[in-house]
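Predict structure. Input: F-box domain-containing protein, 564 residues.
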Amino acid sequence: MPPPLVDPRIGISWEQFEYQRILEFLRSQPEPQTCDPPEIISTNTENAARHKDHIAQLLSYPELSTQPSLLAELAEATWKRKVLLWRTFPFDSLPAEIIVNIFRYAIWSTPSSFEGVLLRFRLTWVCQSWRHIVVNDQTLWNTIWFKDSKIGYSRSKLFFERAGTATLDLRIEDDDKTRVNPDQPMTGEAMHHIMDIITTKASQLRMLIVVVEMWPPVLVLLDRLHRSSKSLRQLERVEIHRTGRPYRWDGPDYPLSDYHHALTLCNGHTSEVTSLCLNGLHLNWDKCLLANLTVLDLRRMPPDLGPSLNRFREILKSSPGLKKLSLDGAGPVLPTRVARRPLPPVFLPRLESFILGDMPIAYAVFCAGIIHAPSVRELTLLNLGGDDHAPLLKALTEKFPELLILALYCLDVATTPQNARIVARWLLSMPKVKFLRVAGMATHMFSPFFADGRFHARDDIPLVPSPEERAAIEATGPRIILFPNLEAIEVQHINTDVVIKFVRGRLEYGVPLKRLYIHCQWLQKMTDEDKKIFRIFGPNFVIVTLPMTLTPDEELIWKQVRGL
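Output follows.
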């Protein structure tokens, strides 16, 4: 395999570079013939063999990784050989079962939903044989994206028809780009129209993701799900995102004044739902059957409209297989001081991912104390309130000894000796961390990562030791490195000098990083001078990442965790 190409001047990966070149070449080619003449097939085969030899020769050059011209030559030979092999492969001689499986992989690997939709249609345009295979495979059409309001959802209806009796994964999305009239959010009537389509196959519904702006379509959705609840026997995943304001709904002030109280989810018929995400809306928690969840994701709720603490604990207790818990500007209602009493944390033995965000520090400490989940592998802290997050870090110390992935967004701690001890002890309690993601953090927040664990191993060690005390501590043994197993870091909107210092510091202490990931959006805003600095690490060290994607290191970590 060729090495990854990362050129900060263009900010794309090897795969992106290769993909662009292939598309450019294919667009320059004439329309394919029904069948290539034998002499063309023979010539293409010979050229493919020639490119293969050339690739092997380039890969043998020691200077390959440091010569951009050789990398570009390798890329060109690689994609040209791929195209030639495609053109000589007898694709139509494959059995239909294999062809449709190839089509599924192609469609499911597209980078966006829009491209996946377009590819389905393009496959039906190639030839009569392909059209028959694609149209008659129900699983190619059962993922339906209701985002075609400008054409009366005719595309979605076609998908619905071709999906036949297959289980259905649906996404309803409303945004300015796809609206008939921009700046006019989806109405309740429009949601009624969509639900008229969906409820004809309610018993086949497996996944439902809804992204709308205003309250009326959400209320219509909940009402129609309530009325169809007995048919929703296969519903496993529900995500409802209401992106607009206000967060609260009290009923009479909105067009659908019949709804005077918070609604349930599917009239309580949610025994098969294992994944639930609610963003910007609340439910009648006491009348919702929420158990056996593997994902619970709550976002953007007024503090008094979440589930009560007792109800929240019941939901967690009845979901021992919970793998992801996200509380982002939402969570259980904080009990009053009169009703507050110490309760043992809920044991979640299988929880892998825990997210806390967009909440005051005191509330974050409260939420963290509700659970006992020693097997958590991924922790995310983002956009927390206040300017000193040390109390939360103290509360999290020793809670996640098996942590492997840590993501910190805008974390901040006041620079005091006491806080330096708190941060160091927190980092020391997570010795297995392999991947670190940091974004929007001030320069002083990187100092704790270079602390010597010998000076923070016990509470009786002076916070500011004298020279004699320092010498005595250093004589106790070798330096204790924080995050000794750290292999990779992803940075976003961090001072370039700080990043360079971090990478060099790890090298100096004998625990060098294997990879540095730079978010593509941050890279685009960098100055040319900053981009030049990152080239000193070589092309194999710096990797550009795309939004909403896992890095290769994270993918490898999760595969190892799950024994794949």
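The domain at 343-483 is CATH 3.80.10 (Leucine-rich repeat, LRR (right-handed beta-alpha superhelix)).
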